[in-house]
Amino acid sequence: MATGIEDSVDLVELTKRVRHDIATPLAIIGQSSYYVRNKLSAQSPTDTQAVAAAGAIEALIREAAALLKTIQPDLKLEAAVSKALELDATVAGVKKSLGGLKTRVEAKPPVDVKVAKHLGILASEAERADAMLRDVEVCFRVKTVKPRLAELDPIVAAAVEGFAFPAEVKASKSLGFKGKALVDAPSLTLALRDLLKNCADALPAGGRVSVATKAEGNLAVIEVSDTGPGFTPDALAKGFVPLFATLPGKLGLGLTVVKKAMTHHKGKAELKKGAGACVRLSLPAAS
What is the pTM of this model? Predict the structure, then answer.
């Protein structure tokens, strides 16, 4: 399972982060599904299938909680990662049950305002848990990355347009590369997603995220910047170190994913201090 970063990983810290940080969205899912189940059970007539779907989500979360307790520091890295990724089945099951639950609830309007709110929480927390698991997988599981010549700007545009920014955060893009580069689209998209999430999480209401592409010699350059407080000296020095995080509830693998993606692209990732935070990605352009 060698991925090139194992020696720099504190296994005790990794297992603690997995048990706590991935457990957090799962616990919120459990609480919201419990609320929805009780609320639906009190309605007359009771939709037994909707109640069962909410109950199924609760059961999945109980199983996940038991699994998380088995992820201990005495495990080897490969075993710890394998156990963490068993939670993929939990998240997939939650999404499937949530789909059925939402369909049944929305088929009988008007939908209770609080039930609708908790259905939204279930969806967003499932996505948050899934994103954490993807970062664990990318960092610690070897995957074949095959950069090939492709138009860069459309890939960047799709990543920005497909990201769900909070309503209070604005995003803009300036795509001026206008050419081809050696790109593995899934790997680059995941890296950009992590950068956009970092920006969105750090910004206050009214903040802005900007994404730009340009050509510099034989390089294609992508810059993701924001209007937040920027990187501290500590973050500039340690940002790419696995498990380094500046915000609570973060696994601290996002920038590690970015650096690994650029290594696979024979490119480079750099942190820059300016008016806000800026991450510069450079990769080979078509010759």
Answer: 0.79
